[in-house]
Amino acid sequence: xxxxxxxxxxxxxxxxxxxxxxxxxxxxxxxxxxxxxxxxxxxxxxxxxxxxxxxxxxxxxxxxxxxxxxxxxxxxxxxxxxxxxxxxxxxxxxxxxxxxxxxxxxxxxxxxxxxxxxxxxxxxxxxxxxxxxxxxxxxxxxxxxxxxxxxxxxxxxxxxxxxxxxxxxxxxxxxxxxxxxxxxxxxxxxxxxxxxxxxxxxxxxxxxxxxxxxxxxxxxxxxxxxxxxxxxxxxxxxxxxxxxxxxxxxxxxxxxxxxxxxxxxxxxxxxxxxxxxxxxxxxxxxxxxxxxxxxxxxxxxxxxxxxxxxxxxxxxxxxxxxxxxxxxxxxxxxxxxxxxxxxxxxxxxxxxxxxxxxxxxxxxxxxxxxxxxxxxxxxxxxxxxxxxx
Length: 389
What we know:
By secondary structure, this protein is mainly alpha-helical.
C-alpha cells in the first residue's frame, strides 16, 4: 500500500509540475517577442505571470496537503528531519509563505507600474518555483522514509544476488569456490590441480557470431553481389575521394581574393575566363580586348590601374565607378574573376586589329630573384643591372 501511495504521489506531483511548465511558453512565442516583453511588458504578460503565480500557489498548497497526509501523527516528519536543519526551515516557510504569496501579486497589482509589476510577478514566480522544488525534495525524502525496508527485508535483499552478479554469472558460468571439487580433474602437476571449467558463454557467442557473419559475407558479396567486393569498394572510395578533392578545391577557389590570387595558365581556366570575358567585358573592351570608345586596350603593356594579376583582379572585383566600370563581385564568384583576370593577361602582345591607343603607365613585371653569382657580385659592391624586357 505504501508503494502504491508513493507511485501515486510522484505521478501527481509530476502532473502538477508539467501543468506549471506548460503555461510558460504562452508568455513569449519567440525570442524577439520575449525580449520586447522584457523591455516594455504589456498587461497581458502580467496577467499570464499572475496566473502562473496563482497556479504555482495552488500546487504548493496541494503538495502541503500531501505532505500533511503523509506525516500523519508527525512521526514521519521527526524521522525525516533528523539532522536536516535546512529542511526544518523550509518546512516552516511552506505554511506561512504560501498564503502570503497567493495574495501578494493581487494586492500589489494596483500599486505598481506595468514594468515594476512585471518584475515583481516574475520574482514571485521564481520564489514559488523554488518552494515547489523544495517541497518535492522534502516529499521525496518522506516517501523514502515511509518505504524504508524492515531489518528482515534488508537481510533478505542482501542475501539475494544483485543484477550485476546475475549477469556476470550468466556471461562466465563461473563455479562457486565451494563447488569447485565437482569439476576438479584427476591429475596433478607439482601440486597444481586443474579445474574442468567450461568455455565462457561470452567467448562462445563471439565465436558463433564470427561464423554467422562469415556466412552472411559470402552470400552477400560473392553469391548475390548485394555488397561490393574489395576491388569494387576500393574503386568507389577512390571516386569519392576525387569528388571530395574537387569540392575542397572549389572551396579554396572561393576563398581567392586580390591578395592571394595567382595567374592561371591551364586551358580550362583560360577557356572559362574567355567565356566570361565575352559575356561581360566585350561591350566595353572589345571582343579581342582591343578597347573601344568606352574601355581601354587590354592587350598592350600600359595600364590605368596596374597590370599585375592582383591589380587586374582588384579592378574587376571593385570596379572603377568614377570612370564608368562597375564592380563585378556580386555577379562573378572569386573563381570566375581569377579566370577572367588570367585570360586578360594572356592577351598581352596579341596586337589585335583596330587596337586603341595606349593609356596609363607602362607596367614592368617584377623579375625573379637574381642567381647566387649575381648576389655575390652585389655583395662585393658591383652594380647589378635590372633587366627590362
